[in-house]
Amino acid sequence: MQYEEHIVMKEYFKMMTDMIVLCATLAISLSFWIISMTASTYYGTLQPVSPLRWLFSILVPLCLASHGMKRKSLDHSGALAGMLVGFVLTMANTSFFSTLMTFFLTSSKLTKWRGEVKKKIDAEYKDGGQRNWIQVFCNGGVPTELALLYMIEAGPGEIPVDFGKQYTATWMCLALLGALACSAGDTWASEVGPVLSRTPPRLITTWQVVPTGTNGGVTPVGLVASWLGGMTVGVAYFITQLLLVKDLDLAAPQWPIVVYGGAAGLLGSMLDSVLGAIMQYSGYDESIGKVVNSQSKTAKWISGKPILDNNAVNLFTSILIATVHRSQRDRVRFGNQIKNMSSGKTLRNTTQVNQPPTTPSLTKTKNMKEKTNIRSPTDSLVSPCSQRLRKRATKDVQSDFQVPEEKENAPSLPQ
């Protein structure tokens, strides 16, 4: 009986805790909405954020963080860092949130998949992953900064990916997608490749056969997995664009986002392998029969130097993948500008040719008129007639219209 009462009380406290968290989330979202409305009132350039978006941006990352803690995908520090990253990305753009959620859920599932096999390979394997705040920020820090810059540039909301209309905001969207696709591709490759690959990995720098788990080792299965991981993130972004963005028929096609995600995942995984093979220590510890990332007396060197750890490699890879798109895009844009500048002379000549030609005789006659003040016979006939008509109209309606004075040199018709 006491055991049943204990269970009932435990469920009751759990329900009350959820209710308190929900009420606090509502209060926080409404307070932030009031602040945004006040700021938009005093500063007209700021766009107010709806209370529903505030609620969604706070509640959903909170639920994902608590779910990650229950599944042991995140520890306490990782959950707090994940809430911050999720809040910023969700507030900036719902497409950012969908890519982050896809990366987090798929990576958590793959980390737990075939855990018994991974324990035999990885000396630092943890049940469920249990990512801390350092790992969260190394994978989500660059997207968070890009999301903040996106809100400064375009404000919170969803926009179509179109360089012709919003160049800077579109670059930030693709850079953020590239960073998350890079992280997803690297995670998929490291979690799927060692388990499913039937061939030993090869070091990406020297192409020598190395033990499984060596930093910088690649396999065909791992490369395919990295491409699929990046493409999965791109598909999530693409579907969110189709569901939430308006006026897509007036924008550029959005389907290349999927291809871009796959390319970013594959390129990010290969770049991560290159950095790991050069700047990350890998040694084979004969006492435990596994590859280790730290030097010891029993570890035999395989590759790399102890300059960076795995988290630093992930951070640098995200930065490089996020900026490589901008540099490539600017290179293409600069080339187009140079091309337009080189053809500017031809365009000017074409414009001059298309203009109607001027008659030299008319120009010469006009200049002579201005110099000598001599009117043509047609002017001498029309001018007095128009003056008489004006006078008659003025007398009939008795208006205040003032007839322009006659010119001194205008000849009059004979009576």
Automatic annotation (TrEMBL):
Polar residues bias: start-end ranges: 374-386
Pfam families per record: DUF92, Spo12
Domain of life of the native organism: Eukaryota
Topology in the lipid bilayer: Multi-pass membrane protein
Subcellular location per the Swiss-Prot or TrEMBL entry: Membrane
Main location: membrane
Amino acid composition bias (Basic and acidic residues), ranges on this chain: 394-409
Transmembrane segments: 20-39, 81-105, 224-245, 257-279
InterPro entries cross-referenced by the UniProt entry: DUF92_TMEM19 (IPR002794), Spo12 (IPR007727)
GO cellular component labels: membrane
Region (Disordered): 340-415
Stated family: Belongs to the TMEM19 family.
Protein name, UniProt field: Transmembrane protein 19
Annotated organism of origin: Conger conger (Conger eel)
